[in-house]
Amino acid sequence: MKALLVVDFTNDFVDGNLPVGDPAIEIQHTVAELTKQFADRGDFVVMAVDLHEESDLYHPERNLFPPHNIRHSRGRELYGELKDVYESRKDVIYWMDKTRYSAFCGTDLDLKLRERGVSEVHLIGVCTDICVLHTAIDAYNRGYAIKIYEDGVASFNPEGHKWALSHFKNSLGADVVKSTD
After folding, report:
1. Which residue, of 64, 77, 115, 159, is most buried by count of CB atoms within 10 Å of its CB?
2. pLDDT at 111 over 90
3. Which residues contact 150 (CB under 8 A, 6 or more apart)?
4. Each residue of 35-92: pLDDT tens digit?
5. Are β-strands 93-98 and 175-177 bridged in parallel, bridged antiparallel, or unpaired?
6. Over 90: is that where the pLDDT of 167 sits?
7. For residues 93 and 34, is the Cβ–Cβ distance under 8 A?
8. Which domains does the chain have, with CATH numbers?
9. Nearest C-alpha neighbor of 48 from the set 112, 110, 94, 1
10. What are phi and psi of 111, to 5 degrees?
11. 0.90 exceeded by the pTM?
């Protein structure tokens, strides 16, 4: 069985406090369509969504990035078309808060995947070279087959995006594909 992990496709990461900007806006339809397809087929779909507390003075990202994805903020809501897809299918999509780059770190993701017999994870979202990358590395280290949709990931760092796509393929053995493949 396979699962789709939708990583951090929120207002703050698309056009908010830590924006990817146009590259993320350009992939929103692909992100929404893939989410819809996986959910409608009965595959396990996970919204892996960054969560920060405004009062957390000790989180390591605090010194790296501006405040983002703060609990109960508009910035933490899903962006654009994806929000509608989630709202219409939230009974079959698993919402998972995460507090680190990787969707596996400090969460029950591995347990949820193994309970369902998932052996292959498909990744979309932002940022290609941060949260998607760290999630893919942890998936690799746990023995999952990995598929990355190059037209379903984006970053505010064009060089980092390009490097991560190469790293997925050459170092993690991931299939890097287009959603139309």
Report:
1. 77
2. yes
3. 165, 176, 177, 178
4. 999 999 999 999 999 999 988 888 788 888 888 999 999 999 999 999 999 999 999 9
5. unpaired
6. yes
7. no
8. 2-177 (3.40.50.850)
9. 94
10. -60, -45
11. yes
Task: State which amino acid sits at residue 15.
Answer: D
**Which region holds residue 172: left if phi is over 0, alpha if psi is between -120 and 50, else beta?**
alpha
Closest-CA residue to 121 (of 65, 61, 175): 175
Query: N- to C-terminal Cα distance for the chain?
Result: 19
- Residue among 11, 40, 14, 38 at smallest CA distance from 26: 14
Could you give the CA distance from residue 138 to residue 147 in angstroms, rounded to a whole number?
A: 13
